[in-house]
Amino acid sequence: MASVRKKQKKTETIEDIKICCTVDGDGCWNWLYSKDRQGYGQVQFEGKVQSTHRVVYKLTRPDEDINGVDILHSCDNPPCCNPNHLSSGTHKENMIDMAKKERHNKKLTISQVKELEEYYRTHKISMRGLAKQYGISHQMVSQILSKKRRTIRKEVA
């Protein structure tokens, strides 16, 4: 079945964005429309396509200059654009945060991948649920299940 790409939404206010989200149990405002390859929401704002979380940050902190600054998610959820989950920081700070939370290139063993695939087939669990269970991103789960990614380390004997 072919995937359907949702259109980018035009927005001018925080309310325009919030109505295009679902709110989960963690308080994340999960963007429902167009996303980039990393899963970050995209929206038309000020005449160009921008990351939804950056637009929310601009709208909720209009006096802060965020040019050349990263916008960090405390929730580590790319589609989230809840302003309470966002903060500004340098790229270095973002990379340190990523390393501390082990969000970078976590590799699974062959047996873990097989277990993940089997668990997905036999249980009604979301990719996000599997991601939390295995300590990887839901995008990585999706790529593993679609056979697009094999980030596997050799089994330790």
Largest sheet: 3 strands, mixed
Strands in their spatial order, largest beta sheet: 1-4-5
The helix count comes to 6
Order of helices and strands: EHEEEEHEEHEHHHE
Structural class: alpha/beta
Q: Return the CATH topology of the largest domain.
A: Homing Intron 3 (I-Ppo) Encoded Endonuclease, Chain A
Give your account of this protein's structure.
The chain has 157 residues and is of the alpha/beta class. It folds into 2 domains: 9-100, Homing Intron 3 (I-Ppo) Encoded Endonuclease, Chain A (Alpha-Beta Complex), CATH 3.90.75; 108-153. It has helices at residues 14-18, 52-60, 91-100, 110-122, 127-134, 138-145, and strands at 9-10, 21-23, 29-31, 42-45, 48-51, 70-73, 86-89, 108-109, 152-153. A hairpin with a 5-residue loop joins strand 2 and strand 3 (29-31). Helix 5 (127-134) packs across helix 6. It starts with 8 loop residues before the first strand and ends with a strand. Residues 1-5 and 151-157 have low confidence and may be disordered.
